[in-house]
């Protein structure tokens, strides 16, 4: 049985199955990426709910694994050279899981890097912009009388959806016929933008038929449907 005692996070979220990957997350766009990826590759894992509404991601135990204080994070008891490894940042975790299993990233080196660039597109652009739209459109930011910040993030989000729509023209997935971590990194964010953030009309989402069809295909995948609900809130 794996010894995870070197990771203080396990004192707050004990591992019932220490030989499995330990996932510390919540059902946010960043969190569900990893649940979906784990479901897609079939690796056994034990999910732990980090209640961000109660600031649990800022507790010393969580910060000991992820000093950035954001979900998700993982511990793999069977990391490189058979030693446990802890990781944070969803893009890095996605790439790690792909490398570990040989799945969700094309084997060809050039296409591998092309895949990674679209993961970075989500991390550097889509995630931050969509998150700001959510703040200014649905949450506390909507009370701000000056609507220029909302308009800026709306326009930039629409531009980014257009970039994705252009990429998906004539393609089933971002990498053509290959479903990859690039798709996983983006699905939750696009779903949240038009669903949870209620910004469908705001950004004119229905103008982007390629993205809408891709989202529908992605959400129909059994691993995606299951991953969107993990870790459960109760």
From TrEMBL:
Keyword ATP-binding assigned: no
Chain ranges of the GST C-terminal domain: 108-234
Record keywords: Transferase included? yes
GO molecular function ontology, one term from the record: transferase activity
Q: Which PROSITE patterns match?
A: GST_CTER, GST_NTER
Q: Which controlled-vocabulary keywords does the entry list?
A: Transferase
Q: Which part of the chain is the GST N-terminal domain? A: 18-105
Pfam families from the entry? GST_C, GST_N
Q: Highest taxon of the source?
A: Bacteria
Family to which the UniProt record says this protein belongs: Belongs to the GST superfamily.
**Name under which the protein is recorded:** Glutathione S-transferase
Source organism of this protein record: Rhizobium loti
